[in-house]
From TrEMBL, chains A, B:
Pfam families: MarR_2. PANTHER family: TRANSCRIPTIONAL REGULATOR, MARR, TRANSCRIPTIONAL REPRESSOR OF EMRAB OPERON. It comes from the Bacteria. This is MarR family winged helix-turn-helix transcriptional regulator. Keywords: DNA-binding, Transcription, Transcription regulation. Gene3D superfamilies: Winged helix-like DNA-binding domain superfamily/Winged helix DNA-binding domain. SUPFAM superfamilies: Winged helix' DNA-binding domain. Residues 1-26 are annotated as: Disordered.
Length: 189, 189
DNA sequence: ACAACATATCTCACCGCTAAGGGATCGACT
DNA sequence: AGTCGATCCCTTAGCGGTGAGATATGTTGT
């Protein structure tokens, strides 16, 4: 059941069907890690590591790619995240720090810092709520809107490139599996 | 091809077959984000976000769970990572900082810090290589070995729990999809 | 009216990582 | 031998995050 990559039955399929896809004999870092565990602790079922190890490692590969794209527009991951959240919510509809905090899953302190940076660059405005003295309305400025509109296609191109090893159908499959995990962990909207 | 979660055809299947699995009408955070993009920018193909957004978000859910498990053993992610790498490599076979750096995909400065912390707690030893004056051999102490052996089952239990929403076959499927992405990004061993 | 609690934002100390660079050592080539 | 580039490990400054808590405002119940 938890058969791993070392015991692939070679189905004799040509691996040239998808250009750029490695053959079944090529092994990734996690394959090696699993082998080490099997050798050292054959009593343990380390199959969860096949998934979680690759999740972690994949984000380590992806993040620098994103970072490069953002840097080309004078941004970083955190700043783009705020700008994009405001943009997709409706470029003229303000959000509160609390909403941004929930959306990005970071602490309130992190949101404050992000907004400080963006505000000092003139990319967002912070306006006190007229109806609730505790609340602040965060909105995109003209410059902020223009910047996120410019960066967005580049960002999507980077994401597309990172996923290029999977067919559209496989990407959909992957997306659904991840969705099931998220729902299982309580990530309902 | 890039049909998204808003246009599910309800196949009328009972969702009670897998307990704990949410029905198809339940939507996660990324479903909502994709809806917002469709409404704001129907011209853009945001399907890569379905995958990458969920990858990012999943790690945000998983990491605190891991953190709790490690904290219960007086550890953190980074320290456990080093101890586990040494353990699975063979508990008496030393590794160099350069090897730990490649395995963890962090910079040399991060490795130095990690080793400083572990060494000051007596969990590892740093020994100058007898054959190469530049190299240091990092090895587990008795205490380090004992600690990682104790923490490992707990860590695996946490990983298993996080993945519980997927059947073993689905976990295998997910693992292979992630592996294909990693190989596409050059993560060969 | 007032107390008690809840909520929203911000502040501050600390943590782990990156990026850039420094010093030491090794290997290859003249 | 001597030099030059590569490699290894460490140092430092800065960045973005967390966690705890301060402050101000809103809400509820008596």
């Amino acid at each position: 059941m938890t058969e791993n990559a070392t015991t692939h039955g070679d189905a004799g399929n040509g691996t040239e069907a998808v250009p750029g896809r490695a053959g079944p004999d090529v092994r990734d870092h996690v394959d090696h890690v699993l082998d080490q565990w099997h050798a050292q602790r054959p009593d343990l079922d380390v199959s969860p590591m096949a998934v979680i190890g690759r999740l972690k490692r994949l984000t380590l590969f992806i993040e620098p790619e994103m970072k490069k794209t953002f840097a080309a527009h004078g941004l970083d991951r955190a700043s783009f995240d705020v700008l994009a959240t405001l943009r997709r919510n409706g470029p003229s509809t303000p959000l509160t720090p609390a909403e941004l905090m929930a959306s990005a899953m970071v602490t309130s302190g992190a949101v404050t810092q992000r907004l400080d940076r963006l505000q000092s660059r003139g990319l967002i405005t912070r306006t006190p709520s007229p109806t609730d003295g505790r609340v602040v309305h965060v909105a995109l400025t003209e410059e902020g809107l223009a910047l996120v509109e410019t960066a967005l296609p580049d960002h999507l191109a980077t994401e597309t490139r990172v996923l290029a090893a999977l067919s559209p159908a496989e990407q959909e499959q992957l997306s659904l599996l991840l969705r099931t995990l998220l729902l299982g962990l309580g990530d309902t909207f």
